Structures
1.
Amino acid sequence: MERRTMTTAEGRPVANAEDSVTAGPRGPVLMQDYLLAEKMAHFNRERIPERVVHAKGSGAYGTFTVTNDITRYTKARIFANVGNRCRAFVRFSTVGGEQGSADTERDPRGFAVRLYTEVGNWDIVGNNTPVFFIRDPMKFSDFIHTQKRDPRTHCKSPAMMWDFWSLNPESLHQVTILFSSRGTPYGYRHMDGFGSHTFSFINAEGTRVWTKFHFKTEQRIRNFTAPDAEAMKGHDPDFAQRELVDAIDRGEYPRWLFKVQIMTESQAEDFPFNPFDVTKVWPHADFPLIDVGVLELNEIPENYFAHVEQAAFAPANLVDGVGFSPDKMLQGRILSYPDAHRYRLGVNYVHLPVNRCPYGANTYHRDGAMQFTENGGGSANYYPNSFNGPGTDAAYAEPAFPLSGEPGDRYDRNAGNDDYTQPGNLYRLMSPEERAALVQNIAGSMSGIAGEKREEIINRQLCHFFRADPEYGTGVAQALGMNVEDPTAHFAG
């Protein structure tokens, strides 16, 4: 293969790329050295802003194949026939850490799936947990601040985390998952994924059902113990990235079974709790998993930055036959995710190869920074118009979903909510060994709480553990070295 000539970004051939243009062998450097200026200017801009959350991640391409008929629930074209297949891209990530953080930190894991369908990109943007810490998007920035760095010490702060969690008992379910062994998964291949939120399916007759999305790993669940996760942080902080790349390069393609839960609108009305509350799960006994398809990852991108770092998922990206729900956290993410991408990548991020719909898109969006397409050519950039521009189609209208309560009020997100039964049930489902690990992991974290509010924060959080299950609270209290004779009385209130 003939060696190509290096050029500048504008295509000018380069004669020397190692020595600056100087006034004599000892310098100084001349301003006319355009190549030096170009290299330094580009280098200064190589780092785009990292994601505020999910900053460090891994990604791969693959395929999604439909294996079961669910057309009774949805008219989405991808599900029209068993055997339908489309290209997919998945990005896994930690949540709270920065780009240089370790892959084995105790943290939820992002699990974002993009299906490149004939009628647009469909993003399922969730985590490796079926629930989340909060149920109202108003709390999101506050929560994330507690997972980042203390504004004074610029260090991670257990006091910040546990203060927030103790003041927001809705977080107890996710906290219980986080401090179990599921908080330190063995890479990305050995964990399940969830859409977490409630979405809707709409069929050809216009009937809506509510649905939750599950990706069940075929590699078997595997987790690090807390000591092993800590050791791996020092041995290989990029363990999950390396493990995924090496497995796919060996031809060991990871697979997940895509399943859904279905709830009718009438079932939702009679349900004992809010089915759109992302801090809770739907019991599988009442709403069993229904097989849908298989997701397989079989291709590592040739360039990490171009594909993984510039990938921009959003739960707003749905396809006809899949819709939203009144889930408050979902509603907030519909707005915030595309807004974050416009800030981080620029308004034309949708044209980047990893984000572009391969089957085309018809909009009236024009201009903006880094517009590298034909920018609509000479066609009309307004709607409606008389020049045969793209128009709307009422066939794609969705049925409205009913609302409860009077609009325009700020309703108490905690009113009437039971934040303790499901975390307690989860604790009681664990084996004795799993309970012991959970308690030790929590105590290890809470022991790092410092400052004048230490006792107040610990006691308040212990109340939540006791309300979920007395044994749960007693175990944490004893692991913290507290003398607990009658814990339910001592920490009540």
2.
Amino acid sequence: MIPEWKETTVDGPRTRRWSLDRAQCAELATHRIAWLGLDTVAAPYRRVRLAPSGSFLLACLEGEGRIFLEGRWQVVRPGQLCLAPPRILNAFHAVARRQWTFAWIRYEEPLAVQPLVHSRSPLRVAEGAQEIGRVVSGLKAEWEGVRNAAMIHHWISLLHGLNLRVAQPARAKSRLSSLWERVSLAIAEGWKLGSLAAEAGVSAEHLRRMCRRELGRTPMAQVAYMRVQRAQELLHGTDDKLDAIAPQVGYHTADVFIRAFTRSVGLSPSQYRERGREARSSAGT
């Protein structure tokens, strides 16, 4: 059953938060960073963001929490890094009797720009969180201390560079990269694990291992993710009806497409399209 989501902000009495946004620090806008922070939280801490306008990264430093990724709740533990593309559901919460410390970064990315996190990005990485945590902590110390403009610039540039390395790994010539390029050009095809493996020239099991290692998900989950990304583009860029969009992104019926899209994004395709129209209207475009 697909849950009914709504925008949620709950902190609770044991939550300690530090954050910095671009209204306070104009240097963040140089890299399209809207907001970042370092939080230590406990239940009932909870966040739900239905369709944020930019990429999101969460680096778990201590304890554990829960994050909603690819249609299900998953545990996030120290050292793990979670990513989410723009305009897709973000939801995470603390669990009872467990303190959770994490760094986080939200970007602001208009539709016309290539987002930091996109269809070739991993959504879960087993390493890199501590490095991002140290940089956010360094920025916090500088901001609360001397606040030297040059040092602020260097901390933010380093942070963005680490984010870029994780979200857009340099594997342009890898076998997987070539595979996903071909899938992207034929996203409407009825891809199965066997046909993906044949296209990549490896066994199904080897493809599964490669995909888990590079993207943190199965090959078929990657196809589903790419289909949702393509559907988002069509919902924003065309007035096509849902029963016309569904076959363009590999779904036989609009009903199946609606269920898959809602499970991943947290909004139905119609709700998603309406939010996009509202955002463009408020921006004067």
3.
Amino acid sequence: MNNHVCHVINTLSTGGAEHYVVNLSNFLNSNGMRASIIAGEPQTLRDKVAPGVHVETLELHPGANKSLLKYIRNLRSTCKELVSYFRREQVTVVHTHLAASALPAWIAAKICGIPVFHSKMHAVKISSLYERILFGSRLPLIFITRYVVFSNFMRDEAHKYWHAPFHKIFISSIGVDTSSFIYDPSSKLASRQALNICMTAHVILVVARLHPDKDVELAIRAARYLNDPSAVLIIVGDGQERAKLEELVRDLPGQTQVRFLGHTNDPRSAYASADALLQTSRSPNIGTVVLEAMATGLPVLIAYRNEEERFMAMDTFDNQPLGHIAHATPALIAECLESFFAELDRDKNFRHIRRDFIRNRHDKQLAFSNLADCYRSHYRSGAIINPAIK
């Protein structure tokens, strides 16, 4: 039986949602399912898409100008093109990922009688105004067959704010390749030598796009507050805030070193060099970086700003002692890091536990296989499978 899953997303730029779509599509393609992606420009990740995955270029939203008038004006023609593609290519499941590109895909899928899956990529707090209005209107309930979420917290948000019935919510994972991201203590020496960092240094790692939502400024302020000449904060990533953050490093007092490594396509060496990963993102839902770090056994410290973010952080660790959380102030983050560095030997006992947790809950092969089964079963029978909900 033909199974063609078509992913519709704003663009193929370098964000987490875009990486997820590419990885999932490549997996489906390599496991006997037809997969395609419809996205607008930019398509930075296009060279990461497997040869068997077709990419269709279509402007689905008004872009940086965010013109609602242009969006509405283009809606009819966009829907028409999507209907034509879905019918011509015999699409059996439409999977949407971001609100701006979702509505025309939903309408086209409804016209074609195709089931729709939609991923909840962001916490409600940092969703766009358009997304909050769209989902708050209950209109999506007419179109969406299954809601795909990546944590219990996101499931509860989908139910509370999007009015999604629990039986339509599928808890999955963005997935991590646990065969590539491994616990390998022997690689630490080579990684530190490559970065010219001594083995006795305390290395704090941030892997993030340098964007206000990631709040890398907080990580820098915490590192400087730590004021530890034996500590190094390594920042892997690039973006619009880099110049501002580099100036902040020059201006702030403190003995902790701060180094910008820029963007890398393979962060495994950075993980191997680190003693801890620091995540300072606002609304810290489970992301690729945290999963990759934990798959290598690395402890993670998540900063939270309010009770909602504290619950999100705890949910990342499944309420188990797998990592650390701290209130998002430089002093309290520094205090937590200082305490952790004092007990580095004790933490080694948890590294295999973290890796086992990721392998059993977030392994890409497991997560994507389960989602693929859900696609197939729904298309085959039209029935909705009730996932096990904790």
